[in-house]
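[job 0412] stage=complex_fold ligand=zinc ion status=START
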Amino acid sequence: MATAERDYYELLGVERTATDAEIKKAFRKLARELHPDVNAEPDAQERFRAVAEAYEVLSDAERRRLYDQFGHAGLRSGGYAPSDFTFTNLTDIFSAFFGDDLFSRNRGGRARGGDVGVSLSIDLADAFTGITRTVAVDIASTCERCGGEGADPGTQRVTCTTCGGHGQLQQVSRSVFGEFVRTQTCPACRGAGTVVETPCTACEGEGRVIESKELEVEIPAGIHDGQRIRMRGAGHAGANGGIPGDAYVEVRVLPDGRFQRDGDDILSQVDLTIVQAARGAQVSVPALDGELELEFEPGTQPGEVRVLRGKGMPSLERSGRGDQRVLVNVAVPRRLTDEQRELLDRFEELSGEDTYRRDEGFFEKLRNAIR
Ligand SMILES: [Zn+2]
Ligand SMILES: [Zn+2]
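[job 0412] stage=complex_fold status=DONE, emitting structure tokens
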């Protein structure tokens, strides 16, 4: 659903230096004009889509940077594909600044506030213990100057002329099956039935202002990378006293150089020298709770895996912890002094088949037993 390559700034009618607020404002104005419910021109929908796509790109700092530097091609190589804007996902775009579902059927215009999404990164160690973090989000909150009314203090809201104060519009369509009546929230007053004549100077009549807020997020021990935490009521304030939306915090768990995670299990590697592997050794290995002393038998082979039960990540779904699996790697010397080479030569002379004889493994024992 790529729009012919039109310049996004041109589509929104803003300068290339436009601030986020200017971009938002320009899109909001265009969206209101072009929304198919209020604009009957045949190309309104197509133009709306183009404008929405432009907004989707320019309202995102990373995408905008890509676009500024490399244009449309940069966006494509950056993996961006424009959303297919339809009536149903329109909501998301409007949530970006109205903070609510403009087109939901909502009596009295008490629209629920929009949800906000934010992501934060934590270390594996934090995911192991659980952690409380604060994260900054831009949230629409009720304007204090007008108390959310939108009208400047001392002035009144007036009845909306588009819907005559009903807050809803009815659209009748006829088909062979009969008449269908579709009720929709009035886009002019967003369901309130009244509109602002003298907008509040603090919120420009929106009744809400965007504020940067600190959310305190409790991240449970055992959280997985990419999981989202829902914080009820922490999203945007609703219009006209509607309930606030929710905040979704996506938690990214950063990779840890010492461990690989596999569900609730973690994997790590231990390097033994050939001498340690041959003679057996006590080696300390990193574990989630700190270092662990592990005893390795003489003749430990590379590729052996030591399973440490209950030393993995705490499980979110059930009690207890996963396992830690430690993979044995045997480090072979890369550089030898003359003396070391002589010693190894001597060692080789003294070695025979028996030196490397394999003990009967479990499966061999089993096979022999069955025979
Ligand atoms: Zn206000
Ligand atoms: Zn209205």
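The CA atoms of residues 172 and 181 lie 4 Å apart.
[job 0412] exit 0
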